[in-house]
């Protein structure tokens, strides 16, 4: 049993040594490309929608989650500093009634694209495990927004949004020039909603967490 335990420890140590010796070093001028599943989980906060006279109605909304293909591209300005563009295929979200519409279920849906640019600090660029953190700007554009259920046939529009964003992630070498990536983003997304050409109006704070797991390579 002791021999087997020692052999296991030696095998793990040898594997770590091999990973360290074959690490895909990151340096200035490299372009890192990652692709994987990106999951948007909104932290929705909705004010009371106001009617056309400006009076609160008690109507609120909630926004559902969605998973799509995520892509990001990082250009390494120095060995430690990178600039990343986060992109994805369009996210599709259900809009559910809340407040006085809490029993109405799904009352609409929308699609959005949230391109996000962050400046990142890569903590261990020469290692096999490379954590990084960053901050930047998010732009979110909404489209194909429409009413459903109780609001079927009703015009709904959501204004585009600019806001701050942050990210923390890590790349782990898989060998043969590829690495595993995991990252968590937070974005400040606020939109003004207009229902029925001004019948109801209100601000919705979506402020999602975006979790991405994928694989990447370097050029």
UniProtKB/TrEMBL annotation:
Superkingdom of the source species: Bacteria
Any one Gene Ontology BP term: transmembrane transport
UniProt keyword Signal, yes or no: yes
Signal peptide from the UniProt entry: 1-25
Gene3D superfamilies xrefs: 2.40.160.20
Keyword Nucleus annotated: no
One Pfam entry name: OmpW
Alphabetical UniProt keywords: Signal
Cellular component per GO, a single term: outer membrane
Name under which the protein is recorded: Outer membrane protein
